[in-house]
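WARN retry 2 of 3 for item q-0093 after timeout on previous attempt; input resubmitted unchanged.
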Amino acid sequence: MRIDILTTFTEMFPAVLGASILGRAADKGILDFKLHDIREYSENKHHNTDDYPFGGGAGMVMLAQPIYSCLDAVDPQHEARRILLSPRGRTLSPELAKELAEEKRLLFLCGHYEGIDERVTYAMDEDLSIGDYVLTGGELAAMVAIDCISRFIPGVLGSSESAENESFSEGLLEYPQYTRPAEFRGMKVPEVLLNGNHALIERWRRDRAIELTLSRRPELIKGVKLDKKDMAFIESLKMNEKQDK
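OK item q-0093 returned
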């Protein structure tokens, strides 16, 4: 997949895109990152990319001209799915990440300052948010989105099952994980994980994921497909809670 990133702060990206899983995927040719400095396309003699907003107000607004010129140069045929990182966009989720991972080419536009000239949105396909909070710019949001989306692209992760087994893949928080040694400072790994019975291990992991989700993010349970064993486990948790009170 080719991923174009339009930003005024290209220096923020190499350390993230060139390291760890993303870096290895780029080395393998699975991901192709292209950074584009919007400032280079400014027709202003000072190469400005922002100006004061019409109507007054605090802060600066990104100019339409440099962004449009950058888009014309980078994606003249509008072959990429163009995404503006914005608080008013759809919130990133596993489902949306999987959808975007199926694209052949993505383009991310990173806003900055107090916003972007509204006319830029006419050239974009959609807005994307990573959460209900405000960042100083879209660069960090773009990194988060790219990392999340990339995990669903075949070959990026070491195991084809990794992305499916992580937190939120089924709407549940991830179950607890352990590694060697089996006992550390008096804390022991649950015996069920050591006995080699894969059916029991899977049941234990499912129960723990449900238990953690109910405890920390109960609102997520509404979107989870629960079977009879899941429901029975939840009822047992409720009974235990009553007995403890």
